[in-house]
Specification:
Layout: E1 4-8, H1 11-28, H2 49-60, E2 66-70, H3 76-79, H4 96-107, E3 112-113, E4 125-127, E5 145-148, E6 160-167, E7 173-178, H5 186-192, E8 197-199, H6 203-212, H7 217-227, E9 235-236, E10 243-244, E11 251-253, H8 258-273, E12 276-279, E13 285-289, E14 293-297, E15 310-316, H9 321-330
Parallel strand pairs: 1-2
Antiparallel strand pairs: 2-13, 3-15, 4-15, 5-14, 6-13, 6-15, 7-12, 7-14, 8-11, 9-10
Helix pairs in contact: 1-4, 5-8, 6-7
Bound molecules: 2-oxoglutaric acid (AKG) and fe (ii) ion.
Length: about 325
């Protein structure tokens, strides 16, 4: 079963998407800001219908866990050198056109949002290797990034994660593991469906919060989630076609629950066995269904000289606007 749908844009489709993005930019301002998305629905129908049809097919096919659209117009020269930190890239507008194209594609799938705790709430985040973060389990590390559901610890996590490649000279792959690939023993499957696991917040949330909002109520609640997480199931939803939730470095079985620990080891083994590599290169957009797939990234050797791998990232709630608003307030922790 192929769980990753691929679509290469024709010249007309790529031009059409780019033109829609230019029009949206002229009317809505910067895609980095939340105000860009107010009323953006008006510009979504300007995306060529054939592209929207592919996005619909992806959203409506339970067998798919990711979509890769290639041939999006990216101009690495205009985008400039890869920034050395996400802080440096906060206020730049050189990649507006690329960000607007990603924003329009993401908006076809649902309500886009950003965490106030990550990159100061910038709606489009920059994923670049950072020298002081080499060893971190985050988008800024360069060691192997282990399996994770994006923000797996949080109820308000995204349904879809969208990545756009600005450059990826060494073709460093993003890794994917699908819930459809899991061959689990029945006893493991049933334990994984019970609330016998803890997923703690990833350190990136806590770290960035501690820096920009020390002493805040949000930070206090984030610490509470770290110290007293509620037990969760790793397989949930319809038992016949469950969703998956796991965050490698931050997931543990309940203390003393050997069965749960064994089931956790089994699911990680299965994800490793079935790992898929997808290279998000220049002009590729990878959209991951964050309920049906987990993702990670292979280790690579960064240069920190402006030529490094550089992706843009957005999160999509994928629910109705009312649900999205409720989730949004929960996201304040
Ligand atoms: O760099 C990648 O390919 C994936 C990074 C990642 O996991 C993320 O940004 O959520
Ligand atoms: Fe991730």
């Amino acid at each position: 079963m192929d769980v990753v749908l691929g679509h290469l844009l024709s010249t007309e489709e790529a031009d059409g998407l780019c033109a829609a993005a230019r029009t949206a930019l002229a009317a809505q301002g910067l895609p980095a800001n939340p105000s860009f998305y107010e009323g953006l629905e008006e510009y979504v129908p300007r995306i060529p219908e054939s592209i929207r049809a592919v996005l619909r097919q992806f959203r409506e096919s339970p067998s798919l866990c990711a979509l890769r659209i290639s041939g999006v117009r990216v101009d690495p020269e205009r985008c400039g050198p890869t920034p050395l930190s996400w802080q440096e890239a906060l206020d730049t507008s050189r990649q507006d056109l690329e960000e607007a194209q990603l924003a329009l594609l993401a908006s076809c799938l649902g309500e886009v949002f950003a965490w106030p705790t990550i990159q100061r709430g910038r709606m489009v985040q920059n994923l670049i290797p950072v020298e002081s973060d080499r060893e971190e389990q985050s988008g800024h590390g360069s060691v192997t990034l282990e399996w994770h559901t994006e923000d797996g610890f949080h109820q308000g996590r995204c349904r879809y994660l969208a990545l756009l490649g600005i450059r990826n000279p060494d073709q460093v792959p993003t890794t994917l593991g699908s819930v459809h690939d899991l061959r689990l023993a029945e006893r493991h499957r049933s334990v994984l469906g019970e609330r016998r696991f803890l997923i703690r917040p990833d350190l990136e949330h806590l770290r960035q919060l501690a820096e920009f909002a020390p002493g805040s109520e949000i930070l206090r609640r984030a610490h509470e989630m770290n110290e007293n997480p509620d037990p969760v199931a790793l397989l949930f939803g319809d038992p016949e076609a469950p969703y998956l939730r796991i965050d490698g470095p931050y997931t543990t079985a309940l203390l003393g629950d050997d069965e749960a620990a064994e089931a956790l080891a089994a699911i990680v083994d299965e994800l490793n066995r079935a790992q898929r590599d997808v290279v998000v290169g220049e002009g590729d957009v990878l959209i991951v269904d964050n309920y049906r797939a987990v993702h990670g990234r292979r280790a690579f050797r960064p240069r920190f000289d402006g030529t490094d791998r550089w992706l843009k990232r957005m999160s999509v709630a994928g629910t109705s606007p009312a649900e999205a608003r409720a989730e949004m307030s929960a996201r304040a922790f």
